[in-house]
Design a protein that fits this description.
Layout (H helix, E strand, L loop, with lengths): L1 E5 L7 H16 L3 E4 L5 H12 L3 E7 L12 E5 L2 H10 L3 E4 L4 H15 L7 E4 L6 H12 L7 H4 L1 E3 L2 H13 L2
Parallel strand pairs: 1-2, 1-5, 2-3, 3-4, 5-6, 6-7
Helix pairs in contact: 1-2, 1-7
């Protein structure tokens, strides 16, 4: 399975890198392919290292203004012209999506895939990996949106919230296997 991971390229604390590394190792050992932003820095590097070291493939989609930080040892690397093209290519190449900790770029990517699902433009499973409770506030906001009628489909149909990496991968394998 090709799993797109949206995440930060920043250097982060162990409470975030440990679950990211664990997920990456599970992905690689499972024979899956990581589809990611292609960066050789921060959390993106941690995940790419974990996948590659455990036998998984790496498909990166960088962007022209970040091409200097693209991972040279990826199995495949595409350089998009801009961020919009990058998101489109990442989603095209993926069977499923995992949202890990990140900043505004990650949040932009996350809301785009959820908006596509909301409008029936994709059926790819989406997991939000809530490492160290990072997304507790967002989870609460999504529930409020659902409770107050802002979501035309149930939240559970848009995203699965996982607290641990093993639960995230199990959900994806089950979801993709039955589609």
């Amino acid at each position: 399975m090709n799993i797109c991971v949206f995440l930060s390229a920043a250097d982060l604390a162990d409470r975030y890198t440990r679950p990211a590394r664990e997920f990456a190792e599970l992905l690689g050992k499972g024979g899956h392919t990581l589809v990611w932003g292609g960066s050789e820095s921060g959390l993106m590097k941690v995940v790419a290292d974990g996948v590659q070291e455990t036998g998984g493939r790496l498909v990166g989609v960088s962007v022209e203004f970040l091409a200097a930080t693209a991972r040279a040892s990826a199995d495949e690397m595409v350089i998009a012209q801009d961020l919009a093209e990058r998101k489109r290519l990442l989603l095209e190449k993926a069977d499923a999506v995992v949202i890990m900790v990140g900043g505004t770029g990650t949040l932009d990517e996350a809301t785009e895939i959820l908006e596509l699902k909301k409008h029936g433009k994709t059926t790819k499973p989406v997991v939000l990996l809530n490492s160290a409770g990072f997304y507790d506030g967002l989870k609460e906001q999504f529930r409020r949106m659902e409770d107050e009628g802002f979501l035309p489909v149930p939240l559970a149909e848009l995203v699965f919230f996982a607290e641990e990496p093993v639960g995230a991968l199990a959900y994806l394998e089950e979801s993709v296997g039955t589609r």
